[in-house]
Amino acid sequence: MYPKVNHVTPVIRVVLALVLLAVTGCGGGEGKTLTVFADTSLTGTFGPLGRTFEATHPGVAVRFDFGGSDALARRIAGGARADLFAAAGEAAMRASRAPNARVFARDSLQIAVPKGNPAHVANLKDLAAPGVTVALCAETAPCGTGAGIALADAGVTVTPASRERDAAAALDKVRLGKADAALVYRTDVRAAGGAVEGVDVPEAAKAALDYLVATVPGTENIALTREFVDLLLSNEGRRVLAGAGFTPVTG
Questions:
Q1: What is the DSSP letter of 158?
Q2: Distances in Å between the alpha carbon of 147 and those of 56, 181, 204, 211?
Q3: Residue 229 has pLDDT above 70, yes or no
Q4: pLDDT (tens digit per residue) in 69-85
Q5: Which of 121, 130, 161, 201 has the smallest number of Cβ neighbours within 10 A?
Q6: Residue 53 is inside which H or E element, if any?
Q7: What are the two backbone dihedrals, phi and then psi, of residue 109, each rounded to the nearest 5 degrees?
Q8: Which fold has domain 32-106+209-248?
Q9: Per CATH, which fold does 109-207 belong to?
Q10: Dihedral, CA atoms, 55, 72, 83, 103, nearest 10 degrees?
C-alpha cells in the first residue's frame, strides 16, 4: 500500500495560486481611478456621466478636475497627472499636447436678455442701438473670443458697458438689470436656469465653440479613457449634452 498524501504538492500550489489570481483579477478596473480634466462649462454634464460610468464599471472611481481649459492645458503640458482631457476650443487642446483629439460637442452663441426682453434685442445689430447697454466677456474668455469673432464678421461695433471675467459674471449683469444684453454661449444661458432668456444668433455660426476630448499621453488607463469617450458619444451621452444646450457631435 502507498502512504496517504496529506499535503498539496508544490506544483498544485502554483496552479491554485494562478487560478486564484485569475479570479480575483477579473474586471481589471477594480480599485482604479480615472482622472478627467475638463472645462468648467462641462460640470453639469460630466458629473452625471461620471456617475453613470462608475455604475457600469464597479470598482472604478471617476475624479473630475474642472477649471479653465487654458489653465488645465498648461498643467497637463507641465506633467500634471490626468488620464483624459476635455477642452473648450482647439487652442487649449493643442497647448496640452494631447494627440488625436476629437470633437464631441459644439456650443453656439446666444444673446442673453432679461425676462421679457425689454430692450427688444433680436440680433447682433441691435446690440449697437442707442440706449442698449451690453455686457461682454473678457477677450481672453471663450465667450469674449466668440463675441469678437461674431461681431467682426457681422460688421457690428459694440462699445460694452463692461467687460466681465466670464459668462457667469456677464449674465449677472443681465439678471440684475445692469445690462440689457450679454453675448454668451447657449449653455451659459441654459445654466442660468430661467433667470434670463436667450436670443439665437444664426449669423454667428463662425463663432461656434468646439469641445474636444483626448487621452493624455502617459496614462495607464487607456482602456478606461476610451470607454469614457464611448459613453460621451453614446445615445446617453448625447442626451445629457443636448439637455445642457450643447450640440452633440459624433461624426
A1: -
A2: 40, 12, 8, 17
A3: yes
A4: 999 999 999 999 999 99
A5: 130
A6: helix 43-56
A7: -70, 145
A8: D-Maltodextrin-Binding Protein; domain 2 (3.40.190)
A9: D-Maltodextrin-Binding Protein; domain 2 (3.40.190)
A10: 80
pTM (predicted TM-score) = 0.81
CA-derived radius of gyration, the chain: 25
Residue whose grid cell is 450643447 = 246
pLDDT of residue 163: 96
Reduced to 3 states (helix: H, G, I; strand: E, B; else coil), residue 138 is coil
Over residues 241-250, mean pLDDT = 94
Q: Which triple of cell numbers denotes residue 169? A: 459674471
Distance CA 110, CA 187 (A): 9
DSSP 72-110: HHHHHHTT---SEEEEESHHHHHHHT--S-EEEEEE-EE
Q: The C-alpha cell of 214 is what?
A: 483626448
Q: What's the number of CA atoms in the CB half-sphere (13 Å) around residue 134?
A: 25
